[in-house]
Design a protein that fits this description.
Layout (H helix, E strand, L loop, with lengths): L15 H4 L24 E7 L18 H9 L1 E7 L5 H10 L13 E9 L2 E9 L9 H7 L3 E7 L18 E5 L12 E6 L8 E4 L20 H15 L6 E6 L13 H4 L24 H25 L6 E7 L11 H4 L1 H6 L8 H10 L11 H4 E7 L8 E3 L3 E2 L3 H9 L4 H5 L16 H4 L12 E5 L4 E6 L2 E6 L2 E6 L15 H14 L14
Parallel strand pairs: 1-9, 1-10, 2-12, 2-13, 5-6, 5-9
Antiparallel strand pairs: 2-11, 3-4, 6-7, 7-8, 10-11, 14-15, 15-16, 16-17
Length: 543
């Protein structure tokens, strides 16, 4: 593993700590104080990241068409955040923000940029031999490297999305002890793939290897015959994750990163009791004809999507059960969240399931009075994946830690993915991580943009620092955004829009003409936070 400089941090002026000195108002989170010193050993951390789940897709966030009892129970026994944000409105850069503790104006990856090289045959299926995403900056530390370096066992199961096979950026080279899933997130669009990837230090793997799915490759990847494939990646990945959890002991703390692919396109899964329980129930049903090469067709998109979320919910329940059975739950911080907002790919129909869709279609009469009131109170979110409107970046976010996080707590404090690195380090007692792990290339500033929200989780709200603002950009859509307080600047291809989220959660009323001074202030933040990246270009607004 790369060694990082231990020289003192050379801060920008002012530092994030200096800028974020405002205290969190008591109205946000009223929790009893819990001291980490009461924990007998360093806590475990489990981060469960699902794929493309929207803010309103869970029962605890107002959804009434989809069953999510286990995740809802997590929320009732832990803390539910209502203003949590991903790192970017699309997968790879959002995950990069989580792993690096950098916002998307500093991170190396700012879009879903894939690479392909050569081809290989699996059965009768032709496929690219080397595939994967644009790699992270190898001089900048990521979360598993920090935790591995500080005595934690590390496991990751699901999507890697940080580099391609044969690149310098694969799990075996960056702090992961055990990996099973997809190196290439492009391949993760298929749930019955030709192969998955594995790296296991425990069994002696020297590098990432491919695990060919022999039962799948007998049948075509697309079209007629695909339905005969039986090796379902979401189930295989979950099985390996549970096996890894069962191997953990009280002797060594561990970090688990479960980047599950559900409910991401394509809309395909085993025809079992979960799927059957929704078929014919979510009418009018939607059929998807396929796209001729990436997503397979289906006749029941609504049932497929709902069943995928319930399947994920069942898996979360099984994870919690294993933690409880192993006696680890009380010493494990569990986070559940999504990488970005919902999409319309592969037949997905977010308008049908979103609170906007439910409140406007003929199924509205199934809503309870409480859910209807929630619709009126919280409003609806504009935009989808790849958009920096709230619908693209505001996500479900739940934290569970029995005995440490007060049950049934709702928190309105804005947080973002790049806050997870400092939060995890504080929870684990890893001090001065920036000074210890900042790279020593003085020609390139090494940014760390997060603020720990551990005080909020533990009820020490008087010690909580807050961001002066939050920042996003996405090259492939050429969009940017800044949120400062309730003001939100959205930039699309260099053109600005200004919204007040306190009165306009749906971002309908563009107030840029009425408040040019605020627009100017937020545009200056963009120029302060955006660092040019030769691989990912965005159009900056005029100053």
């Amino acid at each position: 593993m790369k060694k990082y400089s231990t020289l003192p941090m050379k801060d920008k002026s002012p530092s994030i700590r200096q800028m974020c000195g405002a205290l969190l108002p008591a109205a946000y989170c009223l929790l009893p104080t819990t001291l980490l010193s009461a924990t007998p050993q360093r806590p475990n951390i489990l981060f469960i990241l699902c794929d493309d789940m929207g803010y309103g897709d869970l029962g605890c966030y107002g959804q009434e068409l989809i069953r999510t009892p286990h995740i809802d129970l997590m929320a009732s026994e832990g803390m539910r955040f209502t203003q949590a944000y991903c790192g970017s409105p699309v997968s790879a850069p959002s995950r990069c923000c989580f792993m690096t503790g950098q916002h998307s104006g500093h991170a190396a990856v700012r879009g879903n940029k894939e690479y392909w090289s050569g081809t290989v045959w699996y059965g009768n299926n032709k496929e690219y031999a080397v595939t994967g995403q644009h790699p992270y900056d190898s001089t900048h530390v990521i979360i598993p490297e920090i935790f591995k370096d500080n005595g934690y066992d590390t496991g990751m199961f699901g999507k890697w999305a940080a580099g391609y096979e044969g690149s310098h950026y694969t799990p075996d080279k960056h702090g992961i002890d055990e990996f099973y899933g997809y190196i290439c997130q492009y391949q993760a669009h298929l749930y019955f793939p030709n192969f998955l990837n594995r790296y296991s230090r425990r069994i002696g793997d020297k590098e990432v290897v491919r695990v060919v799915l022999d039962d799948n490759i007998q049948f075509p990847m697309y079209g007629d015959g695909y339905e005969k494939r039986t090796q379902y990646s979401a189930d295989l990945i979950h099985k390996e994750a549970l096996n890894w959890l069962r191997l953990q002991t009280a002797d060594t703390p561990w970090l688990g990163i479960f980047t599950y692919t559900l409910p991401h396109a394509e809309l395909q899964q085993p025809r079992d009791s979960i799927l059957l329980s929704y078929e014919g129930k979510l009418l009018p049903e939607k059929a998807y004809p396929g796209d001729g090469g990436r997503y397979n067709p289906n006749t029941n998109s609504h049932a497929q999507f709902a069943a995928m979320i319930t399947r994920l919910d069942t898996q979360v329940g099984e994870i919690i059960d294993v933690l409880r059975e192993r006696g680890m739950l009380d010493n494990t911080l569990v986070i559940f969240t999504s990488d970005n907002g919902p999409h319309e790919e592969g037949g997905a129909d977010p308008a049908f399931f979103s609170r906007r869709g439910i409140s406007s279609n003929k199924e509205a009469d199934i809503l309870s009075d409480e859910a209807t009131d929630a619709l009126k109170r919280d409003g609806v979110l504009r935009g989808l994946k790849r958009s920096t409107y709230e619908g693209g970046i505001r996500i479900p976010f739940i934290a569970l830690w029995p005995g440490h996080i007060a049950p049934g707590t709702t928190c309105d404090m804005p947080i973002a993915f790049y806050d997870l690195m400092p939060t995890f380090c504080e929870i684990a007692g890893i001090e001065n991580y920036i000074e210890r792990y900042r790279n020593d290339d003085v020609s390139r500033p090494d940014h760390f943009d997060g603020v720990s929200f551990a005080p909020t989780l533990l009820g020490n709200y008087k010690l909580q620092e807050r961001h002066p603002y939050l920042y996003w950009e996405l090259a492939e859509s050429d969009v940017m955004a800044v949120r400062k307080g309730d003001w939100k600047l959205v930039v699309k291809k260099g053109q600005t829009e200004l919204y007040n989220l306190a009165t306009d959660i749906h971002e309908d009323d563009n107030l840029k003409e009425q408040h040019p001074d605020i627009v100017k202030e937020l545009v200056e933040i963009i120029y302060a936070e955006h660092v040019d990246n030769p691989y990912f270009k965005t159009t900056l607004p005029e100053r």
